[in-house]
Design goal:
The chain has 115 residues and is an alpha/beta fold. The protein is built from two helices and six strands.
Length: 115
């Protein structure tokens, strides 16, 4: 079941590649998409709060802006991040995985890079 209105995202922090280097989608006028969330509202919000703190501690001013999708089901969680694996994405994905693993020790966790 989708979760609606759980979080408002001011910026997506997803980089676009250009000859001048990485550029944020919001800086070039592209709309940032709200994350796609599904699962029990309280659990989704708990995980988003933890991810926001841990991802922001990795250098982003708003870690929650990195989340493109979060699906929570019994025994399984899937997280999609709006980062390129070559643009600090691997480190951010690992941070997100470790955060989720600490909160959900008996859960299969999948962290991917959103396109």
């Amino acid at each position: 079941m989708p979760v609606e209105g759980a979080v408002k995202v001011a910026s997506c922090h997803a980089c676009l590649q250009s000859p001048e280097g990485p550029s944020c989608r919001s800086a070039v006028g592209q709309a940032c998409e709200a994350p796609v969330l599904s699962g029990p509202h309280d659990e989704v919000q708990r995980l988003l709060d933890a991810l926001s703190l841990s991802l922001a501690s990795e250098g982003g001013s708003s870690g929650i802006g990195l989340v493109r999708g979060l699906r929570v089901e019994p025994g399984e969680v899937e997280l999609a991040l709006a980062v390129d694996p070559h643009c600090r994405g691997a480190a951010l994905a690992d941070t997100a995985f470790q955060t989720l693993r600490a909160l959900l020790p008996d859960t299969d966790i999948y962290v991917t890079h959103a396109a």
